[in-house]
Amino acid sequence: QGQLVESGGGLVQAGGSLRLSCAASGSIVSINNMGWYRQAPGKQRELVASITNGGSTNYADSVKDRFTISRDNAKNTVYLQMSSLKPEDTAVYYCNADIKVHYAVTSRLHWGQGTQVTVTS
Question: What φ, ψ does residue 75 adopt, rounded to 5°?
Answer without folding.
Answer: -105, 0
